[in-house]
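Re: How this chain folds, sequence and tokenised backbone to follow

Filed under: protein folding, tokenised backbone structure, sequence and structure records.

Contents: The amino acid chain and a row of whole-number tokens, matched residue for residue.

Body of memo: The sequence and its backbone structure tokens, given next.
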Amino acid sequence: MQRIDWVVVSLRVLLVLVFIGLLVAQLMSLPGEFSQMARENPDAGVVPWLLLTFAILEVLCFQIVIVCTWRLLTLVRSDRIFSDKSFVWVDVIMWTVAAAWLVLAAVSATLIGIIYFTPELRDPGTPILLTGMTLIGAVVVLVVVVLRALLRQATVLRSDLEEVI
């Protein structure tokens, strides 16, 4: 087996394990945790349900990225990664990461607003953390966009090289 095959197989095993873990979290752990939070703190209002919705949507985005990565690994293994087929999966990853970031930004803004307008909750730590997470998420989105552009350039270069040969 070639060296890249070992990497692809190892990555696929890890992707399956992560996907199963995310599925368990999405269906069992997260709903239980946030419903317990709502029961223990009835004054929390809509916040536990907002966080549950956020968590499930973010996990769903991760699952979509895992599926797309699996498909890209299939193209890598068959040496067709520098083809137009790969852009379908890369585009889905890019838009999914962007959607996850938008959800993160919206929930962060909502929570920062709740913290700011509730005097007994005013603490600069959580808004700073949420802002930092949102900025890091924006960096991830932009890195994925740059990587897509690099894939486009490599695909063009490979097709030019194939024409010459």
Q: What stands out?
A: The mean pLDDT is 91. DSSP finds four helices and no strands in the chain. The two ends are 27 Å apart (CA to CA). Residues 102 and 134 are 9 Å apart (CA to CA).
